Amino acid sequence: MGKKTVILLGFILLKFLLQYILINSEYDLQRDEYLHLDQANHLAWGFQSVPPFTSWISYIILQLGNSIFWIKFFPALFGALTIFVVWKAIEELNGNLFALILGATCVLFSVLLRLNTLYQPNSFDVLSWTTFYFILIKYFKTENTKWLFIGAVVFALGFLNKYNIVFLLIGIIPSILFTEQRKILIKKELYFSLLIGLLIILPNLIWQFKNNLPVYHHLKELSDTQLVNVNRLNFLKSQIFFFIGSLFVIVSAFYALLFYKPYKKYIAFMWTIIFTLTVFTYFKAKDYYAIGLYPIYISFGSVFLAEKINQGWKKYLQPVFIATPVLFFILLYNLFFSYKSPKYIINHKQTYQKYGLLRWEDGKDHELPQDFADMLGWKELAYKVDSVYSRLPNKERTLILCDNYGQAGAINYYSKQNIKAVSFNGDYINWFNLTHKYDNLIRIKWDDVDTELENSSPFFQNSKLATSITTKYSREFGTTIFIFEGAKIDIKKRIKAEIDEEKNYR
Q1: Could you give the 3-state DSSP secondary structure of residue 440?
Q2: Three-class secondary structure of residue 362 per DSSP
Q3: Residues 30-74: pLDDT tens digits?
Q4: Cβ(275)–Cβ(171) under 8 Å?
Q5: What is the pTM of this model?
Q6: Is 400 helix (H, G, I), strand (E, B) or coil?
Q7: Position 394 confidence tier, pLDDT thresholds 50, 70, 90
Q8: Read out DSSP for 450-492?
Q9: Interstrand relation of 480-487 and 440-445 (parallel, antiparallel or unpaired)
Q10: Strands 460-468 and 480-487: what pairing?
Q11: How far apart are CA 404 and CA 406, in angstroms?
Q12: Are the CB atoms for 128 and 293 separated by under 8 Å?
């Protein structure tokens, strides 16, 4: 085993180690994670908010026991593979050992350490972008058309993971047209590769059309409720913080792509980041959508800097360059990672507020960062629902109806009673069991709590407020659990009518 391989394995091992220790045990999983895990029980070629790839990983996790270890393993794995791809890109650009170490350090000690703590499509999304750009480097260097076919497969897998990768193409296409690489358009292999990519994603496209294009309705809802609160200037500021410790490497890449002769054939990458960021900014995208852009530029910058400080006194800058991303990580990890407890964050509220970390998707500041508030209260909710459910007569005829997908997913994940909670929110609207007879209802309400008993009691013989969520600082704080027994109506029929109404609205 060579020296380079040993160092690379060291970086990968450190990556996995950090991903597991940078999480405070006071936090549960994040609300989106519960939904993604539940998708393993309802495999399909598409879902309301995401393509099917994450459900495939969830199914593997389910077969492995559905433990926290495996839930955290896969995003860590995708992050480790991102380091590996950047390493290979540096080798492809003829970088030396210092360039390899610098590049791996920059990727390791970056926003990816936080991104890879969450089981969401974002980790594989960044890996997909980085891998596609690496394949583009291989093609620009060799003009071997086999890379077009490999690129098509990588893009298709990225598409089946997260539709965000479409923005990669939006940035790449005009960039190629502006450079000598536009000669790719006369390659018949390009069009055959596009056909292969289309065939891979076709089942998902068919699913979308059969289900009335839920991705369109999801994006519209996202635009109306979340993206409308995105400030374009804040979006651009965030791009600096994502890789702030390696910003000097990325800026060096921009300079090198413009003026460094060995990079002449890669000038399209300079246009790519300009076009992609412009489109993201115009559409007021969430700041983390663009994270996949940057790792490949760390490859370019690392090789360029390694070449420029390879001789004389400049060699003494090498340890400084490698230490910089690590030092920035040490300075900032208190702010950006869920390693710190809710109490610590509350006591240092002004610091978090200063960096905009308390601003949620509603455009307002709250007590905790949104991701952190979304990782509290779920175990309490599930255990309390379990307790209520276990005391009901005819509990097998009880419907557990939640206000949102986080509640339903958390209950289904933690429940010891094999409960299958549902909601009209997200994918759960398609997962109701409409062949079952229901006599009782456990209603989990996050809003309009004060009127629930008044509105629903007339339809049941007995009703009461059972308990509520008391976990301080959680988004679910105050969520209330109601019990309704002895239905006077056909619950199944009522549910079906509401499902139809909700789907028609969408």
Answers
A1: strand
A2: coil
A3: 999 999 999 999 999 999 889 999 999 999 999 999 999 999 999
A4: yes
A5: 0.92
A6: strand
A7: confident
A8: GGHHHHHGGGEEEEEEEEE---TT-TTTT-EEEEEEEESS-HH
A9: antiparallel
A10: antiparallel
A11: 6
A12: no
